[in-house]
Amino acid sequence: MDKAVLGLFTYADELLDAAKRLEGSGYDITIFSPIPLGHEIEHKLGPRKNHIKYFTFIGSVAGLFFGLLLTLGTAAMYVLPRGGRPIWSITPTLLMSYETTILIGVMFTLMSFLFFSKLPSFSKKIYDPEINVDYFGLLIDGNLRGRYDEVERILRDHGANEIKRVEETEYNS
Fold first, then answer.
1. Nearest to 152 by CA among 167, 168, 136, 163
2. Domain final residue, candidates 78, 93, 116
3. Which among 171, 54, 58 has a CA at the least distance from the CA of 123?
4. Sheet holding 28-32, edge to edge
5. Domain, as residue range, for 38
6. Same domain, 110 and 133
7. In a shared domain, residues 94 and 110
8. Count of CB atoms within 10 A of residue 7's CB?
9. Which H helix or E strand runs over 98?
10. For residues 107 and 59, what is the distance between their CA atoms, to the nearest angstrom?
11. In a 3-state reduction of DSSP, which class is residue 123?
């Protein structure tokens, strides 16, 4: 990411209109806001894809099989005859399978959340302190070679108060 364009907006509606237009044109956009805009963004730009639920399911199934293998394998390896009772008992097998299903499902969920959120992030990010006070920010980055004027024109048409070209050296950590 060599350069980026940051547009500062006073109103969220103008920001969302510009974001919809730029996203429809194929640009990579990031929205910064001093207040939560989750529902408005979803209504305007559509819902985002969420792949975490698939990792949770895979982790839960893996935990179930791990719990079954652990209890049945342990009972088979260390046979303790107990006066006619079964070696593979149902109750401890279900309890261990249930617990490992939850444990490994939660661990897969946490790892996939961190992966898709790109956390922890050690790269430099763009930050403008005005966004925390009274502006909404729209960052357009990616491959903008030669299209800066077009992006700036779209931002101005949608009511951007200020437009900044951000160089790589201007990124804050």
1. 163
2. 116
3. 171
4. 28-32, 136-141, 3-9, 162-167
5. 3-48+123-170
6. no
7. yes
8. 28
9. helix 90-116
10. 8
11. coil
Q: Enter the pTM of the model.
A: 0.75
Where residue 78 falls (left for φ over 0; alpha for ψ -120 to 50; beta otherwise) is: beta
Q: What pLDDT score was predicted for residue 132? A: 85
- Count of the separate structural domains present in the chain: 2
What pLDDT does residue 42 have? 92
**pLDDT at residue number 138:** 95
Out of 116, 140, 157, a domain closes at: 116
CB pairs under 8 A, 24+ apart, for 32-35? Answer: 32/128, 32/131, 32/136, 32/137, 32/138, 32/139, 33/131, 33/136, 33/137, 34/131, 34/132, 34/133, 34/134, 34/135, 34/136
Same domain, 59 and 98: yes
> Which stretches in the chain have pLDDT values below 70?
1-2, 168-173
pLDDT tens digit string along 68-92? 999 999 999 999 888 888 889 899 9
